[in-house]
Design goal:
Four copies of one chain form a homotetramer. By secondary structure, chain A is of the alpha+beta class. The first copy, chain A, folds into two domains: about 160 residues, Four Helix Bundle (Hemerythrin (Met), subunit A) (Up-down Bundle); about 240 residues, Alpha-Beta Complex (paralog of FGE (formylglycine-generating enzyme)). The first copy, chain A, is about 35% helix and about 10% strand. In chain A, helix 3 packs antiparallel against helix 6. The longest helix of chain A is centred in the middle third of the chain and has 34 residues. In chain A, about 50% of the residues are buried. At the B-C interface, helix 2 of B face helix 2 of C.
């Protein structure tokens, strides 16, 4: 699963080492502005404490690489195997997920020491591993770094949720400079029907669920040139969208009722004014920005209200792969999506993940890897929908044309937005 | 949605009338052996009382046909609009589903009178409707009769569940004569890859979710010649299948844990002996019969244990449509699946519904109908998996090559079984 | 625990036999107007189906008398020991309470046959038991008959609840003739402080929890001459009683919030008019009648709003035992409380049970009986409050000065009302 | 509520000021060894974070004294009124209790600043208040200091629970020196029946629920000379106490079943050895120490197993007030109860709170104070049982003969133990 512009050639150990430490340091940097108290809390079962993310990503390298491949490696603390396992049944019992926020010990400081311990051992291993060991471990290091990047995004998602339920509405970061401009009008970009090849072809890293590359037949379709904006979505709300079951899936309507949804997550009304809570705290709602933090149910209801639909993931990928603007691996990550600026098919990456109408399932020919690593993706293939693209909070080098993100249809704390599709080409 | 061997030509009103009454009477006949007490209970939220099924299917004709199209029709009881609406948001409020089993009134007798009232009005309408009215209503009658047949199967599913949790383990019907014979060995029937046409072509009735007919690309695949038997499944159990998370989806393992699954629904152990609860009461487990009443999670775990997989629904349909044995519309329905007898691809219809790996979703180009009828299928397209074929309890004339049944992956009270598929052709 | 005007002398076997059958027949008579469907449903966990009451009261005689003392007695059906045990841990496993409403089998008819079987065996035993056996069983028969009478009241409470949640609001009985008259004005009846004797003295039957008789010191107190009326209670509602936490216990306020209480159970608003649901169906609210079907929390909040309080159970009994109007054992039972007519301390019995401020606990010197019968009362001595008096639905011969009824403070389906007490004498 | 040996005379402002700051500093000192992370977590809804206790106790003085009586006082932060209100409905909305552990902000440091802000204002107010203001506020200061002491105990209870569910089992404090000695044999101390005066007489501070002083009639009774030991309790466990419903209240048995109780809270079995988790971490179970952290249900079941009973709270107080050993106000508080050493009626104070069989209710003549302060005690008078005495973690100057502690019968995280009583004198 390796080798790309971003991935050093396996033989360049020094480059691997540099890249390893750079990615690892980026995680620690994300937590730097948070107090120990901020890092321990867990605002809901779906989310995890920052400290847990910091520890679990170290646990990943310790468990899947150092324990088996670093001669003489001594685990930092034998209890951590239990405390920081996320969901790998094959590597033993684990601390219950809903209780992650109750672990005041180990402290943030100890967790940073744990990370240093693992990083030092990894740096040595990368440089000194025998060629045979290296052949075995470099795909695992690549996986571990991509895993680390997923948790970088999760750290931001989770702390945003935690701060949003604090009545003080604290900010994770200082206010971002914004240059509000109207979004371009909605236009349709058409794609012909036919036999397409979809999925990862094995060049460079991809998660196992992105392959095998395979053929699909698509009918002609069109995608919206830009993401659905807050203005678009507000029209749905103003037209009674949240009160009209005819637009909603049955389960979606039940979720809307039981959870009292009236607007996307993080929309606030204060002093009669629409605001939005961001990682820089609350501010007035910008109508040009993409709507974000909607569930699949809301995305689907919105699409029904427009008379259009969401894209199938294969349509999305077919379009993206014909698009002149691939993800920019050198782009820095930002903390909130921005309004579209470009003409043409824009905002495919780097603003909001885009709900597709595709339930998350196995591609033809997919087989999960043997052992614990096989639990990474395959065992989640029920009750989830695929999101495509990447969000403002996604590490830029982590975005990929074939990337399959997935969440349950009621989830709203991911940076999830809407891109409309249409059969009317 | 019209006209087939089974469906009389629209101009033959008398034949329509006969068919209407025949299907309606079949429902009442299914309830004839049940006491009023049997008919009122609701053993779980997913199930409904027999009496409710009897009333709701009358409500369907009253609400969608008689009210709008039968001049001077007087609703039997205005309260029934509320009591017997199942889930149609567009026709107003409704009695909460979990409370259906608390309605001792109206009595079973009143419900039968309600059915007669509706039947009489329908019979008259069928014979006397103006041609213009007839054009509007005959597709609705067809839909109503198919709806009625779905509830015939539900009546049997639901009373089976209700009786199964009664410590007296009562029988719905007398013991069935059986002629136990070993199942044929498992063999693989191969199908080539290529572009297939899938879905209903508009000839004869189909539900809206079965269309539009469309092209899909399939890689070569093979299907098991017969359904998975109790013997096959017992080997999975004996190999620790219910204790080994590596075979299970994450949500499936959680369901297995929280619900304490150790075997399919309705398997019993009494005096140390494996038994099975059937509509004819408990009896020893027959190892040759198809395993039935498994959830999607169990079906998927079993398939993983074998190293094979479940079929995609398109594969199933492609195979079924090339198979010389279509569903037999004149076959009587039975109360329990039987062992396979035939060589070749057998048991596609009439034994157990077969879980596919396809999440239930819209075919390309699908748009739900406007209004209440549009709620029939489309709004359930999340968190469910498609089952193909038909079961022993399915009315024989209701089975269809393109039929898409669907249930949530944890459901076990449908007559749901397993057919393996394979990529190794 | 025996011998009173009502209880025949142990030596008069024929009189015992007549009384036994009379009480038993009274239970069956209460169910006579109910259909088999009415008798099977269970509208909430706290309530039981009529059929279950009919069977359980037979089970009581079978289990505690016939099995041990009737030579050659053959249990009607061995499964009933499991099905119809209510809560006696000492006599084995039992069918889960929340599933009582799912037992369509045995049928109502079979349960009546069960009752006849038990009655015949009991009638024979009463007449033919040896003197030594008789000494052992006649207290158990007395207990069984009192148990039977408790279930007579429960049958009415439970079917009232079941009918109240049926949107058809059916009536258990025809409308009662009523002669509305204004309630007498609220007055205070004073009682001096001092040492009182409280509890049953052993003459005639009483439940174990009514004794031993013992001394208590009471400060001077006064009781309201009549029960709180609907008019009184409406003033509380109109003054915002359900919106003002300052009157409520903390747990009471939480119950009021979570359950959305805005008025007593069974108060309805239809077409803008206050109505009340009774065993004879809905009718306009009669302001002179005692308020009924309030929880302890509501009774306590109401009392706080008036600036008064509820009585301690010892105060209630001290007052009742000095009152010239004891319960009338020949009074017929009615289906709804009536307005007070008398001057003086009225409505102590026969209208509504009266919440006291006394938590249900053991009297000094109380020891529960050994064995299963000891589970009758003692094991419920936590989280319940005592109600005193008797209600319109209580069998008249079942009322008693020392009777201690008890329910959890949030319960509202008993015929529970309010009598105010005061320290200002 | 005033003046005792401990309470300075109202005219001695400097002494009040010293005492105020001493009590306040004691709270802060309890938190000193805890990290900011330790202070933010909430291990269950019943418990609160240390930081919350620190802030809430400052909020109490700010809300009930400074806001109304300190001229020109400026609240530290207007949001704190909402964040740190515990349950006072009369002073407005409040942050939901179950979410207290999600407040990473304000930080521990800010909360300490808040405390200093309040302390400075209070110190000034104590010294400079006009005599008229002083008359109004000194009872509130007294109440606030007693409230503060209650939270000192809660801080220890809550952090013990939080640490107990951390798999690392951290210690709050270093191991305590212990001098294990066998407990004296169980003996009975008899008290005559008669009329007793119970409750606080108004000399010195007491909570409102401790009065008014009133007469009660008690029959002769006896109390155990010492608390039930771990050895005593282990005999109950070894005799199947947790498997035999005959000893248990019905609600207690249900709690035992649903929560899986097999021993007191904080008993562990590690490597086959009985251990106990204490504030100094885990250590072997000392059989001579009083059993602690049992629910009322366990205490009651244990008492039933012995054939004895728990004391009524009036019996406990009658005995305590005749006992030569009053609580020692100068005793330091400890972190765990110790074995009895003395002959005679020992361990009444300073080891474990002692469950009584008395439901928590109002004394005759009790009226809650008007306004928010009236919510302090009265509104909890349902579904709770009274505990008497004081525990090792109770501030020594906070123990009192008439003190009425109360918890729901299933609560186990208080330092609650057992003292047997008997009718056999």
């Amino acid at each position: 699963m390796i080798s790309s512009a971003l991935t050093p050639h396996p033989s360049e150990r020094a480059a691997w080492r540099r890249r390893f430490l750079a990615v690892r340091d980026q995680t620690t940097a994300l937590a730097a502005s948070l107090s120990p108290e901020d890092q321990v809390i867990q605002s809901m079962t779906d989310a995890s404490p920052t400290k847990w993310h910091l520890a679990h990503t170290a646990w990943f390298f310790e468990t899947f690489i150092l324990k088996d491949h670093a001669e003489g490696y001594s685990p930092f603390d034998p209890d951590y195997a239990y405390l920081f396992n996320s969901y790998y049944e094959a590597v033993g019992e684990r601390h219950p997920r809903p209780q992650r926020g109750l672990l005041s010990r180990p402290s943030s400081e100890e967790v940073l020491t744990y990370r240093s311990h693992v990083d030092a051992a990894m740096a040595t291993l990368i440089e000194e591993a025998s060629p045979k060991t290296w052949d075995m471990i470099h795909p695992l290091i690549e996986l571990g770094l991509n895993h680390e990047q997923q948790h970088q995004e999760l750290i931001l998602m989770d702390i945003k949720h935690a701060f949003s339920i604090n009545p003080l509405l604290p900010a994770y970061a200082p206010a971002m400079k914004r240059d509000p401009a109207p979004a371009p009008p909605l236009e349709w970009v058409a794609f012909p029907g036919g036999l397409y090849e979809i999925g990862h072809d094995g060049e460079g890293f991809a998660f196992d669920n992105e392959g095998p590359r395979h053929r699909v037949w698509l009918e002609p379709f069109a995608l919206a040139n830009r993401l659905t904006t807050n203005a678009d979505y507000l029209a749905f709300i103003d037209d009674g969208g949240y009160q009209r079951p005819e637009f909603w899936l049955s389960d979606g309507w039940a979720a809307r009722q039981s959870q009292g949804w009236e607007a996307p997550l993080y929309w606030l009304t204060r002093d009669g004014r629409r605001e939005i809570f961001t990682l820089a705290g609350p501010r007035p709602l910008d109508l040009s920005e993409p709507v974000c933090h909607v569930s699949y149910y809301e995305a689907d209801a919105f699409a029904n209200w427009t008379g259009r639909r969401l894209a199938r993931e294969e349509e999305w990928e077919a379009a993206a792969s014909r698009n002149p603007t691939p993800p920019d691996p050198d782009g820095g990550s930002r903390l909130h999506p921005s309004a579209a600026a470009d003409a043409g098919l824009s905002q495919m990456f780097g603003e909001c993940w885009q709900w597709t109408s595709s339930a998350y399932s196995a591609y033809p020919g997919f087989r999960a890897a043997k052992g614990a690593i096989g639990e990474y993706n395959g065992k989640f293939m029920s009750n989830q929908f695929v999101l495509r693209g990447a969000a403002a909070v996604t590490p830029a080098s982590h975005a990929r044309m074939t990337y399959r993100n997935f969440f349950p249809p009621a989830a709203r704390w991911a940076f999830s937005g809407i891109r409309l599709a249409s059969d009317d080409v």
